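Example 3.
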Amino acid sequence: MGLFNRQVKKKTENGNGKANGNAPNGHDTNGHDVPPSPETGEGGAELFDVKTAETMGDRVGGALRDKSPHAIKALMPWIDKARSGPEGRAEFIDKTKEVAWVQADNTVRAISAGMGIADTRAFFRGDPPIEKPNPRYKVHVNAFFAHLRPKYYEKASTKFSHTFALGYLSIYMFLLETITGVILMVFYTPSDRRAYEDIVKIMSSIPYGQLMRDLHRVGAELMVLIVVLHMTRVFLTGSFKPPRSFTWLTGVVLLILTFALSFSGYLLPWDQLAYWAVTIGTSMAKSVPPKEIVGYFSNLIMRGGDTINQNGLLRFYLMHVFALPAITLVLISVHYYRVARSHGISLPAAEEEDPDPAVRKAAKERIDYLPELFTRELLWAAITTFLVVVYSAYVFHAPLQEHSNPLHTPLHTTAPWYFLWIQGLLKDAFVLPAIRALDQLIISSVKYIGVVMPPGSTIIVPLYDSPAWMGVILPTMIIPALFFGVPYINEWWEKFWGSKPSRQLLKNRKGTVVVAILSTIFMLVIWYQGTPFYGVTAPPAVEIGQAFLPEEGVLPPVPLVPDDWGPIRRLGYENLPDGEYDLAEYAVPKTTYTEFERILSAIQQEIMRRGQLWAEGDTEHGLPEPTGVFTIEQWQPNGLKRIELQINWTKTTPSDTGEFKRVIYLQQDTRYQ
Amino acid sequence: MAEAQATAASAAPAKAAAAKPAAAKPAAGHGEAVNIGPSAAELAMVQAPMTRREFLNYAFLGSLGIFLVVFGGAFFVFALPRFGAGEFGGVFDLGLAGDAIPGTEDAPKANTAARSWVSNTDQGVVALYNVCVHLGCLYGWEPITNRFECPCHGSKYEKDGTYIAGPAPRSLDRFVIRFTDANGTVLAETNAQGDPLEVPSPNALMIVDTGKIIQGKAHG
């Protein structure tokens, strides 16, 4: 489209027929062109003369206004004059001021990579530039970081309601994670003997340690969210269509890398949450077909062993801290290079395809990056930093459960929220029942012709390997293929219907709207199925225990919400009086109850509800004649309490124990808010 | 030209530039009578009053600068190593003075955890940092010559750490010793010069504070 830096005019001569001191890359690099003196008609030389340039930097950069001579040398003729009398002295002083101005101006130009004192001030005032050619463009030529950014944007593409700054925020999040991550690396050791202790130390005895850890966690969850939103925006505005198809591909790879970064960091605290979530994740890798080759070896290489141990921790650390960030940085560069240099940010479709040429022209009006868009980006960075820090300081705290125990998996272990959709697929609530129903149908229909088959024996049942299809093929092959294929499927679809490629969503891309709505519904449904609320029920007494005294903190299935350790722990050590409490006494809540007594009452009401369910005939969720006892004991004098919830019920089968106990130990200084 | 220059009375360099907007600028190295000061447009911009936008821009940048400084400070406090009790840099409990301190005629006692030698002389007891003040090797007690000798470059010190010979620039560094009774009240503490401390009683508890190092006196 030739939008960006391909339109620099190559000047080989100036108006006076004198050779221009151009830098080799064809850019005009110096300050103002000086017309010849009106008196003598001479002069008018370019300020930048290749022959007298003093350094390589001068020739290549050429940002300095005047290759001004050494100050003393410049002032020599006036020093003699200064001795001659007051007039000469005045001349000398004025000349000194001039030389001082040039030196100062040159210093500012060197620092700002092209803008002098007056230009810099114009920059801050939002005024148009003082010099020609635009010295702000010089900054883009002379400075590395400014060179990465485009010199100007098209006006309509900078609208907030078009992009919501999501691409910018994705990179900002990556930067935030890198900085907070390096800070955390000061105190973290990837050893299975030390990692947990290091995290506890960071959270408790190092100043700002908890803030840094929380920032890193909030940034991680926010980054996944923002990257997904960015992808959604690009999809809905059709900004994946040619010539942006390859950019979309790199974007999908970046999405996968974001998940990988988040997942590899998840293991590092080495607590129960980390250990078991990553065990589940790597076990899924074990089933990638062909299982004996790809699955087996990829699992072994990721884990560094049969189970996750020290080797695995070190490998995940290496991936998280170096390998994945390096690859992500390279891909961000590729992705951004295309956006900034090749095809630019897309314009809002309504304006770009408007029949009125004036509207289209106005949409393409140029806005210089410096200063307006640069200050806007700084503002976004400042606002986001503020929100993230406030949120980490007051609302959200990164969870930490007990030290990882390879011998015990806690109840309600789940994958992190961005992988819950895979866990939902694994529960297979649609295809497997359909296969079973079909199997049932075949069996009952062949019964009429006298053939008797046991259930599950038709050929379709063993053919359908649920974990392989739902756990591996669908989430790691079919769905990613669909994502990667979006531009190409779209192109084929357009050819099929013979429609003109357009990016206007509601007018010309109704099919896309349908696809977007259906896939969002699909994702939400399987995400919900992935949560522990669906399809995983423990025995009713265990459920009661888990509701009030969960084994470990329960992570919500949505990002950025703190984990829940249950009302008892939240109440706090000081508010839990010792004693043995028969819950039947708390059946009816009184208004005079303390917070603790209200919780006891809530437990009793839940127990009674289960008893009621049993009486009504619900043997799955009910308990026969349940009673409960709640005990709090001072276990250690200096601040450890033992808290026990015991639920008893009438035994109905010989194997039934009739008793459930949940015991936790609460330390005085732990805060669970 | 001279008149134009002489009438320039403002603080801004070469107001005469306004009178000669088309002054030819020489190539580098020539100190001719031409004006290299600011052009009219530049001068106008530099002298213009501050606008609201400009002020807010500076204020915003200032606030970002404050944030960076505060963040730098937070990182500094975050990264500074802390010394706990029992770690070098902290306080070490050596137990009863009678057990920890050798006799005045006996060899000094080494304490590896506290990285010190406890020397008892007629003037009192002193806790010497076991690192030679020359270049950091660990010196040792030489019973044959009854002095400390460093194996690396041969610096030699008296029993109380005073410099005898060798490339070391000063006498050995000392730690602050504190004697407390059973309740914790301080009975005696090494003074700021690090002079040897008299032992108040063999039943006093002895503490060596490795966080407080007193440098040895430089020799002549």
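Residues 540-667 of chain A form one domain. The mean pLDDT of chain A is 84.
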